[in-house]
Write a structure and sequence with these properties.
- The complex is a heterodimer of chains A (92) and B (488).
- Chain A is mainly alpha-helical.
- Helix content of chain A is 36%, strand content 4%.
- Chain A has a domain of 37 residues.
- In chain A, a hairpin with a 2-residue loop joins strand 1 and strand 2.
- The longest helix of chain A has 18 residues.
- The model of chain A has no long low-confidence stretch (mean pLDDT 87).
- By secondary structure, chain B is an alpha/beta fold.
- Chain B has 17 helices and 13 strands.
- In chain B, helix 5 runs parallel beside helix 6.
- The radius of gyration of chain B is 21 Å and the shape is globular.
- Classes of the chains: A mainly alpha (92), B alpha/beta (488).
- At the A-B interface, helix 1 and helix 2 of A face helix 10, helix 11, helix 12, helix 13 and helix 14 of B.
């Protein structure tokens, strides 16, 4: 069973806020989903070795400079910017 | 000009100058203006962009040049496929107003062919959902009955194509998000093999499952689109380039093919769905196929494996939304931690937050081995089970969804019950295989039923060949005539 405290701890890791009035409902949902996930916990898997599940391997290229986005493009979607920087308010 | 024309007919109409691309485009824009209020398929129509492409096509035609396969053909893109200069918000408040500065590879390919973008279409927020009701622009409705869901997550794409306001659409499929809405709306939806189509510019949900593919009126259209899109892309290291032209393989006779029937897929079906699948099986037999039972018991692990792995990947992928570089940012905060957590809590919808929390939980210390690692090992076991099944048959025939489209509002009641609707679609994503949903009948209320053809890796040509031959054989049957008058 997942407790309120665990939900709060996970939410903190995930950088999400859980309002007090939603804690009961969310804990119930999570317990239901985790119970569902638990159905595979007891399954025995003979071969424990990890390998890439899609049978794909890393693709490398020569280390050659290629055109990228301009600073203007990178900053275009920021809500707060100051010339060529993103603005993040100092910790209060 | 008909509003339900297949691509080859439109291509012919343009090439023979039966109508101009401007007239064609305008007829779709008019249809959108008229119908979209009822469908909510489009979240952002792009008429200026569409007419600009149409003008280029008309100039080319005036010069007597030959049109490429998808040149001048209108389409809509799901709201998670990046388009430079056009808002791509994943139907999430956290990406409200986000305007990409680069194109997804699939759109680069199509735009270089002067494809006509009619607009961006509705989806479940971040593609997390099976009903197209979780997005910030409200639900897309099913053209067959507007009180029913269009399916999800590519519900807007399916609603647009089935509703006659787009000849085709590109969607994405992580656990069934192309095939399930295609099934609910009575159209064809192809989820290609993982790695067949570039994912560059697709806003990520679960990167090892996500795949872009077409929603179209028929298998031939899906083949035409797939052939154009399936290219190796240096910007997506998992893209491989395809093996065989699907369009050229369409006409092959099916005689002698072995169709695998997996009993695990046929449990708990709505009786109308079961009946339609039984009919479909008979059609394949009439085409000279042999049906054979092929059991894949490992399918019973598929749903928990999918939700564990997809949520784990989502919790990592969605970590990037912090309010700093793009998208929504909370108005009031005192420090960076509060800014990020308030931004995320206000910006993400409930289902997205639930999946991020589940993903964070299964990846956290103490639970990693029991959930994430176990699920990865079972994923491989499922893949091997499918590979073994394909040594005994050419493709599998299964339902796409155990039921037909459900009423809107139904899904909000029980999270696990909602996840169960994905039971027939997720195994394919786990195994990275191609599958196509094809309409195969209607239920008693006139809602479409879809069947799913599943193939081995990079066997899209085999699947679309089977789907096309099925469509030709079933054309005379009654369900076709009710299917919005598509000419094959």
């Amino acid at each position: 069973m997942v407790t309120h405290e665990e939900i709060r701890a996970i939410a903190n890791l995930a950088k999400l806020q859980v309002p007090d009035e939603e804690l009961d409902g969310l804990t119930e949902d999570m317990n239901e989903i985790i119970a569902f996930a638990d159905t595979i916990a007891s399954v025995q898997v003979e071969d424990e070795a990890y390998e890439d599940v899609n049978g794909l391997s890393n693709v490398l290229r020569e280390d050659v400079v290629q055109p990228g986005l301009s600073a203007e493009e990178v900053l275009q979607n920021a809500r707060d910017r100051d010339e060529n920087s993103f603005v993040v308010k100092k910790h209060a | 000009m008909q509003s339900f024309s297949i691509i080859s007919k439109i291509h012919e109409g343009l090439s023979q100058k039966a109508y101009s691309c401007k007239e064609l485009t305008q007829s779709y824009l008019d249809a959108i203006a008229k119908e979209n209020g009822a469908l909510n398929a489009y979240t952002l129509p792009t008429p200026e962009k569409a007419l600009e492409s149409a003008r280029k096509v008309d100039e080319k035609l005036a010069r007597g040049e030959t049109l490429r396969p998808l040149e001048g053909i209108p389409l809509t893109l799901k709201a998670n496929i990046s388009t430079k200069g056009i808002v791509t918000d994943c139907c999430s408040k956290i990406l409200s107003g986000y305007t990409p500065v680069y194109d997804a590879t699939v759109w680069s390919i199509l735009e270089s062919q002067n494809a006509v973008l009619l607009g961006k279409c509705n989806m479940d927020e971040f593609a997390m959902g099976s009903s197209c009701e979780t997005g910030c622009h409200g639900p897309a409705h099913n053209p067959h009955d507007e009180t029913k869901v269009a399916g999800g997550s590519s519900g807007g794409a399916a609603s647009a194509v089935a509703g006659g306001v787009a000849p085709y659409a590109l969607g994405s499929d992580t656990g069934g998000s192309i095939r399930q809405p295609a099934s609910f709306c009575g159209i064809v939806g192809l989820k290609p093999t993982y790695g067949a189509v570039s994912r560059y510019g697709l806003i990520a949900y679960a990167s090892s499952f996500d795949q872009i593919g077409p929603l179209a009126l028929c298998a031939e259209d899906a083949a035409r689109i797939f052939d154009v899109l399936a290219q190796k892309d240096p910007r997506d290291s998992t893209s491989t380039g395809k093996k065989e032209s699907a369009l050229e393989a369409l006409k092959k006779p099916l005689s002698g093919r072995i169709v695998g029937l997996v009993p695990e897929y046929f449990a708990g079906l709505q009786p109308d769905v079961e009946k339609a699948l039984e009919e479909a099986k008979r059609v394949f037999e009439s085409l000279g196929c042999t049906c054979k039972t092929v059991s894949i018991p490992e399918i019973r692990y598929a749903l928990p494996v999918y939700y564990i792995l997809a949520c784990a990947e989502a919790s990592s992928n969605l970590g990037r939304y912090d309010g700093i570089r793009y998208g929504y940012k909370t108005a009031h905060y005192t420090g960076i931690n509060e800014m990020i957590s308030k931004t995320r809590s206000e910006g993400f919808g409930k289902e997205v937050q639930r999946r991020i929390l589940l993903g964070t939980y299964v990846l956290s210390a103490g639970y990693y081995d029991a959930y994430y690692k176990k699920a990865q090992l079972l994923r491989r076991k499922i893949q091997r089970a499918f590979a073994k099944a394909f040594t005994q048959c050419d493709f599998l025939l299964a339902p796409t969804v155990p039921m037909t489209a459900f009423p809107e509002g139904f899904t909000a009641q029980d999270a696990v019950q909602t996840y169960q609707t994905d039971i027939c679609t997720v195994p394919v994503n786990i195994a990275g295989l191609p599958a196509v949903s094809v309409p195969c009948g209607f239920d008693a209320d006139g809602m479409p039923v879809g069947m799913q053809l599943i193939g081995g890796s990079f066997q899209e040509a085999v699947l679309l060949n089977a789907a096309h031959q099925y469509e030709l054989a079933a054309r005379s049957q009654s369900f076709r005539s009710a299917g919005k008058g598509v000419e094959l």
